[in-house]
Amino acid sequence: MRLSSEGRDDLVREIDVAEEPLAFHGVLPYRQASSRSQPPRGVPATTATTWPLWTLVGLVVFLLFAVGLWVKSLGSLPAEPVGRAPTPSAVGGRPDPGTAEVFPMSFGDYTLIRRIGKGGMAVVYEAVRRGEPCALKRPLSGFLEDTRFRERFLREAELGRTLHHPNIIRIFDRGQVGTTPYFAMELIQGETLRECLDREGRLNPLVAARVTARVAEALDYAHNKGVIHRDLKPSNVMLERSGGVKVMDYGIARAQHLDGLTTTGALLGTPS
Questions:
Q1: Residues 6+ apart with CB under 8 A from 257
Q2: Which residues pair with 67 in a beta bridge?
Q3: What does the alpha-carbon distance between residue 147 and residue 256 come to, in Å, rounded to a whole number?
Q4: Cis omega (within 30 of 0) on the bond before 133?
Q5: Where are any strands of DSSP class E within the chain?
Q6: Residue 192 bridge partners (DSSP)
Q7: Which of these, 5, 87, 107, 125, lies nearest to 54 by C-alpha position?
Q8: Percent of residues, the chain, with pLDDT higher than 70
Q9: Fewest beta carbons less than 10 Å away: which of 33, 167, 210, 242?
Q10: What was the pLDDT predicted at 72?
Q11: What predicted TM-score, i.e. pTM, was given to this entire model?
Protein backbone atom coordinates (compact mmCIF):
# COMPACT_ATOMS: atom_id res chain seq x y z
CA MET A 1 0.00 0.00 0.00
CA ARG A 2 1.46 3.38 -0.99
CA LEU A 3 0.03 6.66 0.31
CA SER A 4 1.12 9.84 -1.39
CA SER A 5 0.14 13.50 -1.31
CA GLU A 6 1.59 16.64 -2.84
CA GLY A 7 4.30 18.15 -0.66
CA ARG A 8 4.48 15.15 1.66
CA ASP A 9 6.67 12.08 1.93
CA ASP A 10 5.22 8.84 0.59
CA LEU A 11 4.25 6.19 3.10
CA VAL A 12 4.68 2.54 1.97
CA ARG A 13 3.49 -0.45 3.98
CA GLU A 14 3.20 -4.16 3.23
CA ILE A 15 -0.19 -5.44 4.35
CA ASP A 16 -1.39 -9.04 4.68
CA VAL A 17 -5.03 -9.10 3.61
CA ALA A 18 -6.99 -11.72 5.52
CA GLU A 19 -10.67 -12.61 5.20
CA GLU A 20 -11.69 -9.81 7.53
CA PRO A 21 -11.53 -6.06 6.71
CA LEU A 22 -8.37 -4.34 7.91
CA ALA A 23 -8.35 -0.72 9.13
CA PHE A 24 -5.24 1.30 8.33
CA HIS A 25 -4.24 4.80 9.43
CA GLY A 26 -1.26 6.65 8.06
CA VAL A 27 0.19 10.15 8.58
CA LEU A 28 2.29 11.66 5.80
CA PRO A 29 4.92 14.14 7.04
CA TYR A 30 5.85 17.19 4.99
CA ARG A 31 8.99 16.73 2.95
CA GLN A 32 10.73 19.72 4.60
CA ALA A 33 10.72 20.12 8.34
CA SER A 34 10.44 23.91 8.04
CA SER A 35 7.22 23.57 6.09
CA ARG A 36 5.29 21.64 8.75
CA SER A 37 3.50 24.82 9.76
CA GLN A 38 2.99 25.95 6.16
CA PRO A 39 0.87 24.31 3.48
CA PRO A 40 2.39 23.52 0.09
CA ARG A 41 2.69 26.51 -2.23
CA GLY A 42 -0.54 27.42 -3.96
CA VAL A 43 -2.73 25.22 -1.75
CA PRO A 44 -5.15 26.81 0.75
CA ALA A 45 -4.24 26.16 4.37
CA THR A 46 -7.48 24.39 5.31
CA THR A 47 -7.28 22.10 2.31
CA ALA A 48 -3.61 21.18 2.73
CA THR A 49 -3.62 20.58 6.48
CA THR A 50 -6.99 18.94 7.13
CA TRP A 51 -9.23 18.06 4.17
CA PRO A 52 -6.81 16.02 1.99
CA LEU A 53 -5.52 14.02 4.96
CA TRP A 54 -8.92 12.93 6.22
CA THR A 55 -10.11 12.31 2.68
CA LEU A 56 -7.06 10.15 2.04
CA VAL A 57 -7.48 8.23 5.29
CA GLY A 58 -11.16 7.67 4.56
CA LEU A 59 -10.38 6.48 1.04
CA VAL A 60 -7.74 4.06 2.31
CA VAL A 61 -10.10 2.63 4.92
CA PHE A 62 -12.83 2.23 2.29
CA LEU A 63 -10.48 0.51 -0.16
CA LEU A 64 -9.21 -1.88 2.49
CA PHE A 65 -12.77 -2.65 3.57
CA ALA A 66 -13.74 -3.35 -0.06
CA VAL A 67 -10.68 -5.58 -0.57
CA GLY A 68 -11.51 -7.48 2.61
CA LEU A 69 -15.09 -8.08 1.46
CA TRP A 70 -13.83 -9.21 -1.95
CA VAL A 71 -11.38 -11.70 -0.44
CA LYS A 72 -14.03 -12.97 1.95
CA SER A 73 -16.48 -13.40 -0.92
CA LEU A 74 -14.08 -15.81 -2.62
CA GLY A 75 -15.04 -18.41 -0.05
CA SER A 76 -18.79 -17.87 -0.48
CA LEU A 77 -19.16 -17.64 -4.25
CA PRO A 78 -18.57 -21.37 -4.90
CA ALA A 79 -21.66 -22.24 -2.85
CA GLU A 80 -23.80 -21.72 -5.89
CA PRO A 81 -22.28 -22.98 -9.09
CA VAL A 82 -24.16 -21.17 -11.79
CA GLY A 83 -25.11 -22.88 -14.99
CA ARG A 84 -26.27 -21.33 -18.22
CA ALA A 85 -29.93 -20.59 -18.62
CA PRO A 86 -31.78 -23.20 -20.64
CA THR A 87 -31.99 -22.61 -24.34
CA PRO A 88 -35.26 -20.84 -25.23
CA SER A 89 -37.93 -23.12 -26.60
CA ALA A 90 -38.09 -23.46 -30.34
CA VAL A 91 -40.74 -21.34 -32.04
CA GLY A 92 -43.87 -23.35 -32.62
CA GLY A 93 -44.28 -24.71 -36.11
CA ARG A 94 -40.60 -24.43 -37.04
CA PRO A 95 -38.26 -27.39 -37.49
CA ASP A 96 -35.43 -27.97 -35.06
CA PRO A 97 -32.17 -27.18 -36.93
CA GLY A 98 -30.47 -30.35 -38.09
CA THR A 99 -33.54 -32.55 -37.55
CA ALA A 100 -36.80 -33.28 -39.32
CA GLU A 101 -38.80 -32.69 -36.14
CA VAL A 102 -41.25 -29.81 -35.95
CA PHE A 103 -42.05 -28.37 -32.52
CA PRO A 104 -44.27 -28.38 -30.62
CA MET A 105 -45.26 -31.97 -31.33
CA SER A 106 -47.47 -34.49 -29.54
CA PHE A 107 -46.19 -37.70 -28.00
CA GLY A 108 -48.83 -39.60 -26.08
CA ASP A 109 -50.00 -37.43 -23.18
CA TYR A 110 -46.98 -35.16 -23.62
CA THR A 111 -46.24 -32.15 -25.79
CA LEU A 112 -42.60 -32.00 -26.85
CA ILE A 113 -41.35 -28.40 -26.83
CA ARG A 114 -37.76 -28.74 -28.00
CA ARG A 115 -34.86 -31.13 -28.16
CA ILE A 116 -32.51 -30.76 -25.18
CA GLY A 117 -29.86 -33.26 -26.14
CA LYS A 118 -29.10 -36.34 -28.17
CA GLY A 119 -26.79 -39.23 -27.36
CA GLY A 120 -25.73 -42.23 -29.35
CA MET A 121 -28.85 -44.20 -28.45
CA ALA A 122 -31.50 -41.83 -27.10
CA VAL A 123 -32.78 -38.29 -27.31
CA VAL A 124 -34.10 -36.01 -24.55
CA TYR A 125 -36.80 -33.38 -25.00
CA GLU A 126 -38.27 -30.61 -22.94
CA ALA A 127 -41.88 -31.63 -22.59
CA VAL A 128 -45.13 -30.62 -20.90
CA ARG A 129 -47.96 -32.75 -19.55
CA ARG A 130 -51.01 -31.16 -17.96
CA GLY A 131 -49.11 -27.89 -17.66
CA GLU A 132 -46.18 -29.46 -15.79
CA PRO A 133 -42.73 -29.20 -17.46
CA CYS A 134 -40.41 -32.20 -17.51
CA ALA A 135 -37.64 -33.83 -19.53
CA LEU A 136 -38.72 -36.80 -21.65
CA LYS A 137 -36.24 -39.41 -22.84
CA ARG A 138 -36.93 -41.91 -25.60
CA PRO A 139 -34.72 -44.22 -27.71
CA LEU A 140 -33.66 -43.42 -31.23
CA SER A 141 -35.73 -45.27 -33.78
CA GLY A 142 -32.76 -47.39 -34.87
CA PHE A 143 -32.60 -49.07 -31.44
CA LEU A 144 -36.27 -49.94 -31.01
CA GLU A 145 -35.66 -53.47 -32.28
CA ASP A 146 -32.65 -54.03 -30.03
CA THR A 147 -34.03 -56.16 -27.22
CA ARG A 148 -31.03 -55.72 -24.94
CA PHE A 149 -31.06 -51.96 -25.38
CA ARG A 150 -34.78 -51.81 -24.57
CA GLU A 151 -34.10 -53.77 -21.40
CA ARG A 152 -31.40 -51.33 -20.34
CA PHE A 153 -33.61 -48.36 -21.20
CA LEU A 154 -36.45 -49.73 -19.10
CA ARG A 155 -34.02 -50.56 -16.30
CA GLU A 156 -32.87 -46.93 -16.20
CA ALA A 157 -36.49 -45.89 -15.71
CA GLU A 158 -37.04 -48.54 -13.03
CA LEU A 159 -33.88 -47.64 -11.10
CA GLY A 160 -34.62 -43.96 -11.32
CA ARG A 161 -38.02 -44.48 -9.73
CA THR A 162 -36.46 -46.28 -6.76
CA LEU A 163 -33.64 -43.80 -6.06
CA HIS A 164 -34.85 -40.83 -4.03
CA HIS A 165 -31.97 -38.51 -3.26
CA PRO A 166 -31.54 -34.74 -3.75
CA ASN A 167 -28.41 -35.34 -5.84
CA ILE A 168 -29.97 -37.94 -8.16
CA ILE A 169 -32.29 -36.89 -10.95
CA ARG A 170 -35.89 -37.92 -10.26
CA ILE A 171 -37.96 -39.97 -12.68
CA PHE A 172 -41.70 -39.31 -12.56
CA ASP A 173 -43.26 -41.52 -15.18
CA ARG A 174 -42.54 -44.27 -17.65
CA GLY A 175 -44.54 -45.84 -20.42
CA GLN A 176 -44.75 -46.59 -24.11
CA VAL A 177 -46.31 -44.79 -27.06
CA GLY A 178 -46.82 -47.25 -29.90
CA THR A 179 -43.58 -49.22 -30.00
CA THR A 180 -41.50 -46.44 -28.43
CA PRO A 181 -40.77 -46.64 -24.69
CA TYR A 182 -40.09 -43.46 -22.75
CA PHE A 183 -39.67 -42.07 -19.29
CA ALA A 184 -40.18 -38.57 -17.92
CA MET A 185 -37.85 -36.97 -15.38
CA GLU A 186 -37.38 -33.63 -13.70
CA LEU A 187 -36.31 -30.78 -15.97
CA ILE A 188 -33.03 -29.28 -14.77
CA GLN A 189 -32.42 -25.57 -15.26
CA GLY A 190 -28.68 -25.48 -15.78
CA GLU A 191 -25.97 -27.32 -17.67
CA THR A 192 -23.87 -30.44 -17.54
CA LEU A 193 -20.52 -30.47 -15.79
CA ARG A 194 -19.01 -31.27 -19.21
CA GLU A 195 -20.42 -28.04 -20.68
CA CYS A 196 -19.14 -26.08 -17.69
CA LEU A 197 -15.63 -27.55 -18.03
CA ASP A 198 -15.57 -26.93 -21.78
CA ARG A 199 -16.39 -23.28 -21.12
CA GLU A 200 -14.34 -22.60 -17.98
CA GLY A 201 -11.37 -24.89 -18.61
CA ARG A 202 -11.15 -25.77 -14.91
CA LEU A 203 -13.23 -25.23 -11.81
CA ASN A 204 -12.43 -23.15 -8.78
CA PRO A 205 -11.07 -25.71 -6.24
CA LEU A 206 -13.87 -24.97 -3.79
CA VAL A 207 -16.50 -25.48 -6.50
CA ALA A 208 -14.81 -28.71 -7.60
CA ALA A 209 -14.75 -30.00 -4.01
CA ARG A 210 -18.40 -29.11 -3.51
CA VAL A 211 -19.51 -30.80 -6.73
CA THR A 212 -17.41 -33.88 -5.96
CA ALA A 213 -18.87 -34.15 -2.45
CA ARG A 214 -22.44 -34.01 -3.72
CA VAL A 215 -21.75 -36.58 -6.43
CA ALA A 216 -20.14 -38.82 -3.79
CA GLU A 217 -23.23 -38.50 -1.60
CA ALA A 218 -25.40 -39.58 -4.53
CA LEU A 219 -23.18 -42.59 -5.28
CA ASP A 220 -23.03 -43.57 -1.61
CA TYR A 221 -26.83 -43.54 -1.43
CA ALA A 222 -27.12 -45.59 -4.62
CA HIS A 223 -24.49 -48.07 -3.42
CA ASN A 224 -26.43 -48.56 -0.20
CA LYS A 225 -29.38 -49.44 -2.43
CA GLY A 226 -27.25 -51.98 -4.27
CA VAL A 227 -26.88 -49.84 -7.40
CA ILE A 228 -23.55 -49.08 -9.13
CA HIS A 229 -23.66 -46.36 -11.81
CA ARG A 230 -20.81 -47.62 -14.05
CA ASP A 231 -20.83 -44.62 -16.39
CA LEU A 232 -20.04 -41.64 -14.18
CA LYS A 233 -18.61 -38.76 -16.24
CA PRO A 234 -18.99 -34.97 -16.46
CA SER A 235 -21.72 -35.22 -19.11
CA ASN A 236 -23.82 -37.27 -16.65
CA VAL A 237 -23.61 -34.67 -13.88
CA MET A 238 -25.98 -31.70 -14.02
CA LEU A 239 -25.21 -28.37 -12.35
CA GLU A 240 -28.41 -26.55 -11.45
CA ARG A 241 -28.62 -22.78 -11.67
CA SER A 242 -29.79 -22.84 -8.05
CA GLY A 243 -26.53 -24.56 -7.01
CA GLY A 244 -27.70 -28.15 -6.86
CA VAL A 245 -25.87 -31.11 -8.37
CA LYS A 246 -27.66 -34.06 -10.00
CA VAL A 247 -26.27 -37.41 -11.14
CA MET A 248 -28.21 -38.86 -14.07
CA ASP A 249 -28.20 -41.62 -16.68
CA TYR A 250 -28.36 -44.97 -14.91
CA GLY A 251 -28.83 -46.78 -18.21
CA ILE A 252 -25.96 -49.23 -17.68
CA ALA A 253 -26.06 -49.28 -13.90
CA ARG A 254 -25.80 -52.59 -12.13
CA ALA A 255 -28.37 -53.43 -9.48
CA GLN A 256 -28.11 -56.38 -7.13
CA HIS A 257 -31.86 -56.98 -7.21
CA LEU A 258 -31.98 -57.14 -11.03
CA ASP A 259 -30.52 -59.79 -13.32
CA GLY A 260 -27.28 -58.74 -14.97
CA LEU A 261 -27.43 -57.64 -18.60
CA THR A 262 -23.70 -57.63 -19.19
CA THR A 263 -22.20 -60.37 -21.32
CA THR A 264 -18.92 -61.77 -20.02
CA GLY A 265 -16.07 -59.85 -21.62
CA ALA A 266 -18.31 -56.97 -22.77
CA LEU A 267 -17.20 -53.37 -22.40
CA LEU A 268 -19.64 -50.79 -21.03
CA GLY A 269 -19.28 -47.14 -20.11
CA THR A 270 -17.19 -44.38 -21.61
CA PRO A 271 -13.48 -45.30 -21.80
CA SER A 272 -12.32 -41.73 -22.47
A1: 226
A2: none
A3: 21
A4: no
A5: 2-3, 11-12, 94-95, 102-103, 105-107, 110-118, 122-129, 132-139, 171-177, 180-185, 190-192, 227-228, 237-240, 245-247, 254-255
A6: 238
A7: 5
A8: 71
A9: 33
A10: 58
A11: 0.56
